[in-house]
């Protein structure tokens, strides 16, 4: 009997030891590289190929009265395709057909992602968690998340520190419900505002875009793997924002030097900040699609910049190689071109999948390319801590999503993004004790029109419109009269007469016009999520901006301009507020309206932020990150075009209506005492630039000081001027602030005729001021030698 117990005890101990054994890839104490190699060695070809497939995620859960669980579609995808990632699992909008009713609240979202990860861990052979990627350019694109201004508004703050804080909030909210990868920032230079996605960009300048991109990456990622941090995906690599004719996804005409000196630097800055993922663009460059371009994906991104993350396709862009681009005859050939070029992950699951599997089995693709791609993805999964922490704490969701702190952040970003374009005779700020205020226009009280594209449905009470803001700002004795007047596009219900009556009876008329990216259920959508747009069809929606809504003109659509003209004709003071996603034609308003405020798409707290500016609770300091043209005939009209200087047209001059960097304040600033000191060394130099800015007005305020450089003589043609530094500082009335910048060889480098980077000796002019077309201080310095890289 004693022997029996001894044998039984030994067996129990042996069993416990087996259970306690940790496979190397699950051992968090091992180096990540070792864990990757161990897991790769255990995977079948089918599992490896499947790991590279990122499927559309919103059909991967089921929600009903019984609760939330994984769907049969997920189970089938895991069984048949061995998938490794999901995209937009928590997304809600008309394209996904997810609404406030059948979509997920934040708590439900956490339950859904936990159910998905539990299925992956418990029901698959190797227990590899999914990487859940979510749209997050101006807030997590999910019901209940905080909605910030779109990127063009974020850039208008000229405040990277604030944007980093905002990105940290977005990461916290996304992480709380199970997302570990945020799509954003968008680093495309927007130099043709006809392009439908201008609102998603940080504007036209590589330096400003790069600074904003770095801020977003730092805010998203922090230390990858930390709680409340997610990895960023940089979009769209590269030159996606300058399509010919403004056609979204169309071909671009950009040379190597322009790519290297203008379009690639924002991505390089974000990669050097640690970005862990990059998305390829739909377009081709010089005949080579970005999704199969080894020069971009391997030579530039990895070899030159040292990128260690993974590259993901845009939705269906691999299939585009044997589709729209017609550079591949078959799906297998398209998969071969992409994976060999350095593209790792397929957003769709149909670009790689069976095509890649067949290509490997037939010998068209070496398994080494698959292992390389899978290894890059697995590295990020391990770095994120997904194997150790695949689930989220559902009890913490309410403490991390849409908190009072996050709402306050949304209001602050919206405030700092507002650009005062014109303020003739100091019409603004308005008095809070006016007897009667008329608030007129299609964007006065339309909640979704102020949120921008890539926004999920939100409860109505959550969004603060301009009407809400005005009512909250004025005294209880002020009567606020609201008249819509017209729609953005639809002319069927225009009532200008009612708007005129309201203006005539008021002390001031606030007219809120512009555009809309509000997706609706009447619009049809392409497989990529872009809208189908047909000219000549009845205007049933306000949407004139957002993915797919390219423009042939930049005019205010519908009856908006007649509405504005009629209100101005009353003779009452008029303030124009624009809520829009791209620079629109404001020529008539600039000539006839005394005060113009631009808010872009200001997010959920935008109405309150606009009212803060209109009634003087906040002194505006936003600056334009993109030039506002007088006509599409001027395009491109970006300030930093290459030499020579543009000459005027017959109809009007070549200058934009409002230049890059423009923005007014309720106070005035004076620039003085520019000092420049250059110290040259053997390998580099330091040029210290210092100047003073004094608040000479009657109010405290912020100033955005800007430093521009002109390379006087160079071996290749350079821009007429180029932004190289900026800072936003608060200055009390009567006080002076000292601004300081440093330039090194990296700030002045060019791509020489020998196809090498260099900073050339010679003269450089420094321009300092509040905008690209207002630089009251100038000086020059000279470098006595060339500097190599």
Morphology: globular
Estimated helix fraction: 25-40%
> Strand count, sense and closure of the main sheet?
8 strands, parallel
Total E-strand runs: 28
Structural class: alpha/beta
Number of helices: 21
Rounded average pLDDT: 95
Q: Strand order of the main beta sheet, please?
A: 11-8-7-6-5-4-1-12
Q: In the CATH hierarchy, what is the class of the largest domain?
A: Alpha Beta
Work out the strand percent. 15-25%
The name of the CATH superfamily of the largest domain reads Glycoside hydrolase, family 3, N-terminal domain
Helices and strands in order, then pairings?
Blueprint: H1 2-20, H2 32-42, H3 45-51, E1 53-56, E2 61-64, E3 67-70, H4 72-81, E4 85-87, H5 106-123, E5 131-135, H6 151-156, H7 160-176, E6 181-186, H8 206-221, E7 231-237, H9 256-263, H10 265-272, E8 277-280, E9 284-285, E10 288-289, H11 294-304, E11 310-312, H12 331-341, E12 346-347, H13 353-361, H14 367-384, H15 397-400, H16 404-417, E13 419-423, E14 436-440, H17 466-473, E15 479-483, H18 496-505, E16 508-514, H19 560-568, E17 574-579, H20 587-592, E18 595-598, H21 606-614, E19 669-680, E20 685-695, E21 701-711, E22 722-731, E23 736-743, E24 750-751, E25 757-759, E26 762-769, E27 777-783, E28 787-788
Parallel strand pairs: 1-4, 1-12, 4-5, 5-6, 6-7, 7-8, 8-11, 14-15, 14-16, 16-17, 17-18
Antiparallel strand pairs: 2-3, 9-10, 13-18, 19-20, 20-23, 21-22, 21-26, 24-25, 25-28, 26-27
Helix pairs in contact: 2-14, 3-13, 3-14, 7-8, 7-16, 8-10, 12-13, 16-21, 17-21, 18-19
């Amino acid at each position: 009997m004693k022997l029996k117990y001894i044998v039984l005890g030994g067996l129990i101990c042996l069993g416990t030891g087996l259970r306690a054994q940790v496979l190397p890839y699950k051992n968090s104490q091992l180096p990540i590289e070792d864990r990757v190699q161990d897991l790769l060695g255990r995977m079948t070809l089918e599992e490896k190929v499947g790991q590279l497939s990122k499927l559309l995620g919103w059909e991967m859960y089921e929600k009903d009265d019984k609760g939330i669980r994984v769907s049969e579609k997920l189970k089938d995808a895991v069984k048949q395709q061995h998938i490794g990632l999901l995209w937009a699992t928590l997304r809600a909008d008309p394209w996904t057909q997810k609404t406030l009713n059948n979509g997920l609240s934040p708590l439900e979202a956490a339950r859904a992602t936990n159910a998905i990860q539990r299925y992956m861990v418990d029901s698959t052979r190797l227990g590899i968690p999914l990487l859940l990627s979510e749209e997050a350019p101006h807030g997590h694109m999910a019901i209940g998340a905080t909605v910030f201004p779109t990127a063009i508004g974020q850039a208008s703050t000229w405040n990277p520190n604030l944007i980093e804080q905002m990105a940290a909030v977005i990461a916290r909210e996304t992480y709380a419900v199970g997302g570990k990868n945020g799509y954003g920032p968008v680093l495309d230079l927007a130099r043709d505002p006809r392009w439908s996605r201008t609102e998603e960009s940080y504007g036209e300048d590589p330096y400003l875009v790069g600074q904003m991109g770095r801020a977003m990456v730092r805010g998203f990622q922090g230390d990858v793997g930390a709680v409340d941090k997610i990895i960023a995906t940089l979009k769209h690599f590269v030159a996606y924002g300058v399509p010919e004719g403004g056609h979204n996804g169309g071909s671009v005409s950009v040379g190597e030097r322009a790519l290297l000196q203008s379009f690639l630097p924002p991505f390089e800055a974000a990669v050097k900040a640690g970005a862990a993922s990059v998305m390829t663009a739909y377009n081709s460059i010089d005949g080579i699609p970005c999704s199969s371009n080894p020069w971009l994906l391997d030579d530039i991104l990895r070899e030159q910049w040292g990128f260690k993350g993974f590259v993901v396709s845009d939705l269906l862009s691999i299939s585009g190689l044997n589709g729209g681009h017609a550079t591949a005859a078959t799906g297998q050939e398209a998969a071969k071109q992409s994976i060999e070029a350095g593209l790792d992950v397929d957003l769709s699951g149909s670009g790689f999948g069976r095509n890649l599997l067949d290509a490997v089995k037939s010998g068209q693709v070496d398994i080494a390319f698959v292992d390389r791609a899978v290894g890059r993805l697995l590295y990020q999964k391990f770095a994120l801590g997904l194997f150790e922490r695949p689930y989220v704490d559902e009890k913490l969701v309410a403490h991390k999503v849409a908190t009072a702190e996050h709402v306050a952040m949304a209001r602050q970003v919206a405030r700092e993004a507002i650009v005062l374009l014109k303020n003739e005779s100091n019409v603004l700020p308005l008095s809070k004790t006016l007897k009667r205020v008329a608030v007129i226009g299609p964007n006065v009280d339309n909640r979704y029109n102020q949120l921008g594209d890539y926004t999920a449905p939100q409860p109505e009470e959550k969004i603060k419109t301009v009407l809400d803001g005005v009512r909250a700002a004025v005294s209880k004795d002020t009567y606020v009269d609201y008249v819509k007047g017209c729609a953005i596009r639809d002319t069927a219900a225009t009532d200008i007469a009612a708007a005129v009556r309201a203006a005539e009876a008021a002390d001031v008329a606030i007219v809120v016009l512009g555009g809309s990216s509000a997706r609706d259920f009447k619009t049809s959508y392409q497989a990529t999520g872009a809208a189908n747009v047909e000219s000549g069809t009845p205007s049933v929606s306000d949407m004139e901006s957002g993915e797919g809504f390219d423009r042939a003109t930049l005019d205010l659509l519908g009856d908006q301009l007649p509405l504005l003209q009629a209100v101005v004709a009353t003779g009452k003071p008029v303030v124009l507020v624009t809520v829009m996603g791209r620079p629109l034609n404001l020529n008539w308003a600039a000539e006839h309206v005394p005060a113009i405020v631009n808010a872009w798409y200001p997010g959920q707290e935008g109405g309150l932020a606009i009212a803060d500016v209109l009634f003087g609770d906040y002194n505006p300091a936003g600056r334009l990150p993109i030039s506002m043209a007088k006509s599409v005939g001027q395009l491109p009209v970006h300030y930093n075009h290459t030499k020579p200087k543009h000459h005027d047209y017959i109809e009007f001059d070549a200058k934009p209506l409002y230049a890059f960097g423009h923005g007014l304040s309720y106070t005035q600033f004076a620039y003085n005492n520019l000092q420049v000191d250059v110290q040259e060394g053997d390998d580099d130099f330091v040029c210290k630039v210092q100047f003073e800015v004094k608040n000479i007005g009657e109010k405290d305020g912020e100033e955005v000081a800007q430093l521009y450089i002109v390379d006087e003589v160079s071996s290749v043609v350079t821009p007429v001027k180029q932004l190289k530094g900026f800072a936003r500082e608060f200055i009390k009335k009567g006080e002076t602030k000292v601004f300081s910048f440093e330039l090194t060889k990296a700030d002045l480098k060019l791509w020489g005729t020998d196809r090498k980077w260099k900073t050339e000796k010679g003269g450089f002019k420094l321009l300092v001021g509040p905008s690209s077309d207002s630089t009251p201080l100038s000086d020059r310095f000279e470098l006595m030698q060339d500097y190599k890289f």
